[in-house]
Amino acid sequence: MAAEVGHPAPEFELFDERRSPVSLAGYRGRKLMVVFIPWPFSEICDAEACSVRDNFDEFRRAEADVVMVTCHPQPTTKRWADEMGFGFPVLSDFWPHGEVARAYGCFDERFGVSGRVTYVIDENGIVEQIIASGSLGRARSVDDYRVALTPR
Length: 152
Prior knowledge:
Layout: E1 13-15, E2 21-23, E3 31-36, H1 43-54, H2 56-61, E4 64-70, H3 74-84, E5 90-92, H4 99-104, E6 107-108, E7 113-114, E8 117-121, E9 127-132, H5 142-149
Parallel strand pairs: 3-4, 4-5
Antiparallel strand pairs: 1-2, 3-8, 6-7, 8-9
C-alpha cells in the first residue's frame, strides 16, 4: 500500500553513501523529509538536491531531518554526495531495485526510477504531507518544503 497522508509511513532500512544503515525507525521522535530523486548527476536533480543542501540549516531549525533516496547503486550515491557536499544521507534503493520507492508509491516503472516526490513524516512516523512535482521533468520548489514544515 502506498504512503498516504494521515497513515504510518512505510518502514525502510537502506544504506547511505558511506554504507551505513539508515532506517525510518531511527528518526522516531524527529520530523523527517524523505526526498526521492530520480537521476543523480542530472540538471534538475542536482538543482533540487543543492536547493535542499543550501536550505538544510533552515530545515533543521524547523526540527526536520532530511534523507534523499535514489534507485541508483551506492557508489553513485557516494560520488554524488561527495561532489555536491550534502550534509544529509543519500540512500541507495538499488536492490531490490526500487523496493522502498514502490512501498511509498512513487516508483516510475517506465524508467526504473523514483518519481519526484517528498514525504514529510512526523515524529511518530505518520505521513503529514506529500509534495510531488507531477513530472520527472519538473523540479519541486523549496518553498513547498518551507510551507510543509511551518507549524500549524
